[in-house]
Known about the structure:
Low-confidence stretches: 1-31
Shape: rod-shaped
CATH architecture of the largest domain: 2-Layer Sandwich
Radius of gyration: 43 Å
Mean pLDDT: 77
Number of helices: 10
Number of strands: 8
Order of helices and strands: HHHEEEEEEEHHHHEHHH
Amino acid sequence: xxxxxxxxxxxxxxxxxxxxxxxxxxxxxxxxxxxxxxxxxxxxxxxxxxxxxxxxxxxxxxxxxxxxxxxxxxxxxxxxxxxxxxxxxxxxxxxxxxxxxxxxxxxxxxxxxxxxxxxxxxxxxxxxxxxxxxxxxxxxxxxxxxxxxxxxxxxxxxxxxxxxxxxxxxxxxxxxxxxxxxxxxxxxxxxxxxxxxxxxxxxxxxxxxxxxxxxxxxxxxxxxxxxxxxxxxxxxxxxxxxxxxxxxxxxxxxxxxxxxxxxxxxxxxxxxxxxxxxxxxxxxxxxxxxxxxxxxxxxxxxxxxxxxxxxxxxxx
Length: 316
C-alpha cells in the first residue's frame, strides 16, 4: 500500500513538472499587434512587380521572364516589408545587428535593416508564474506540501534576454528553491501563523538575485499549505481540547465571581435587620400565585431574629 502511494506521488510530480515545463517552453507565444504597415508595403511592391511582369510579358511574349519577374518581386517585397516593425505599448524590441546588441526599439513604429538586423520582442507587463506544489520538511520534521504564485515583470529587457537563457524558467526554479529553504527553517506553527512574513522573506531573497537578470519581483503569495490527514486530525483534537480548557476556565471564573457576590450579599443582609425578611418575602413572591404551590415556614423569621439577638446579648 505504501509503495502504491509512493508511485502515485511520483506520477503526480512528473505530471506537474511536465505541465510546468510545457508552460515555460510556450512562454514565447504572445499576442502581438498586427503589422499592417509591413503588409501594405508587401502588397504594394508585389502588385508593382506584377504590373511590371505583365508589361514585360507583352513586350517579349516570354513566360520565363514573366515568372522570373514575379519571383523577384515577391522576394524583394518580402525583404523590404520585413524592415517595418511595430511594437505595442507594453513591448520593447531588442535590436541585434549581425548578432551584436545595438539598442532598444519601440514602442511604436520603427525600421530595421533587413537580413542584417533582427529584433527580439519582450513583454514588459507584469507576468504570473504558478510555483508547483513543493514537498517540504519543516524544522520540527513535519512534511507539508506548499504551492505559491509569483508576480514579476521585466524592467531591463537587455539583461533579461542576454544574461539569462530563459528568464521565466530561471526565476520560477529559483523561487521554488528559496521556498523550500525558507520553509525548511520554520516550525509548523510559524508556517501557519506567518504566511505573509514568509512570502515577504522569499520575495526579498528572489529579488536580490533577479535584479541581475533585469527582473523585478512585485509579489509572492503562498496559496495552499497541505498537511497529512493524521496531522490534521491531531490538530483538530488539540484545538477542541484548547476550546474545552477555555470553557472550563471561564465557567470556574464565573462560579468564583458568583460565590464572591453571594458572600457580599450575605454580609449586606447581616448588616441590615430587615433584609432577610424582605429576601424571604421576595422568594415567596417569586414562586407565583399558583394554587399547587404551598409554602410552609416551620420557624418564623421573627423568632430566628429574636434568638440571634438573645444569643448576642448573652455572649456579651
